[in-house]
Amino acid sequence: VQAIGNDIVTRFPDAKVLYVPSEKFIQQYVDAYAQDRRNDFINFYQNIDTLIIDDVQFFSGKKGSQEVFFHIFNHLHQNNKQLVMTADRTPVDMRDITDRLLSRFKWGLTVKLDTPDFEHRLRILEDKLRREDINDIPHDVVVYIAKTVNTNVRELEGVVNSLLMHS
Fold it and tell me: Are 132 and 163 in contact (CB under 8 A)?
């Protein structure tokens, strides 16, 4: 998801691109509401050119966050801005999200990402290690992780993070 944001920034250097996990969005909204700065929060998000929000399934049961996101979504859409949303399930499988917000989720392209194959897992791990400037994990350990952890990218990154913490 962050790679999408990097690509947009490269192609459109003046664009205001924001990547935010849904949990952070929700917490920012709660804080803004508590500080009576709800309008500032909304204005900030309505001025984004491309909003990338990760794990929208966490809006489940969060009525206030859903309401404010609905209005931000509408504003961005009406102003021809881009929204990229990720979730671990399709919109039809989400629960405790308002129908009108779910209908917005269904407007876009839904793409299922398959589990990466060994070569992709290895490249993902090597890229993460390079980005984090980590050079002390032997290559055979990285290969072992890529062969063994075959569920998803987050788990791959979690294993690397765990190794680093233990070392």
Answer: no
